[in-house]
Amino acid sequence: MDRDTLKQALENADLTGYEADAYLTLVDHGRLAAVDVAKKSGVPTSQVYDTLRSLETKGFVETIDQDRLHAEPSDPVDILTHLRERGELFSDAAEELENRWEEPDLTDHRVGVVKHAETVLEHARSEIRDAEVGVEVALTADQFDSLQTDLYKAANRGVVVHVAIYYEPDLERRAASWDLPKTGLEMRVVNIPGPFLAVLDRHRTFFAPNSRAKEDYGILINDDILSFINHWYFQTCLWYAWDPVSSTQQTPKTYISLKEFIRDITPLHHDGADIAVTISGIDTTTREYRTVTGTLTDIYYPDVFVDETPSLERLSTYAIVWIDTGDDVLSVGGWGAVYEDIEAQKLTLEAVSFDGVAQS
């Protein structure tokens, strides 16, 4: 590396042009009087004293006051460390700038692809903090540890949080430290490995393949329809089929899936229970958000059978419930409802009673 390039590198490491020139002169010649530093470098005599004092403050030189000011280069150990740290910083900054340049802005795009799965996790973390309705997330125990604070906070502010966690040999021990019954979220264990997946508020989806994938990448989705597809993958493959680690069984219990709600309450309805429910969602006529409370009056899905919990296959085509609010009987549909009165986003099972006797 020639002197000019080395001087430029020192300038990039927080030295001024005069400081870099003076320092290299001392490295090349050893101890020199200040006036000789000025003669052998490009530093003006009027600036050389201030330049050497500044270099001393930064730890690059030591000055000696004899009959006139002298200076010599300091032991380079600290300086070399500083330069190497700066090099790592510049390298990291370059990589981060590349990632940010290539990272899609989901405000303007429905789908974006990123190079690293960790980027997906950070996007999901940010959106979980802003979630208002529901979070469905499938992940490893390590990924849960990374997101658990934000997931707990979401559950505490009333967001319905469903966590599908992939099995590993020490999962039971790790789960004991999470104290799940106090967190307000529901967790189920999936015995087969799968991808990182987060579906948030029916609109945003974040996907990254598991560690067995040949490539490290992630997908960011800002789209209702694609999020609905991923929601169904979560429900069918990562949720319904697996046993809960922690579950909220007492009322009130809140659902973000009409189909899950129907699966739970259908046997109770056919047994003659009075089922009080609160529905929050979109009025399909005004497209405004509304909340109603009433009593369940009827359930419909293809091939209804009494005394049977409907299968997901049966519910996947069409499912609807009716709620008597006292003023009106409203039809309630699930995600994407068009003809019903309300597209349900949250369904809270408030109470179940038989002949006026409440059941918990």
TrEMBL record:
Gene3D superfamilies: Winged helix-like DNA-binding domain superfamily/Winged helix DNA-binding domain (1.10.10.10). It holds the Pfam family TrmB. Residues 10-67 form the Transcription regulator TrmB N-terminal domain. Residues 111-351 form the Transcription regulator TrmB C-terminal domain. Belongs to the transcriptional regulator TrmB family. This is TrmB family transcriptional regulator. It comes from Salinirubrum litoreum.
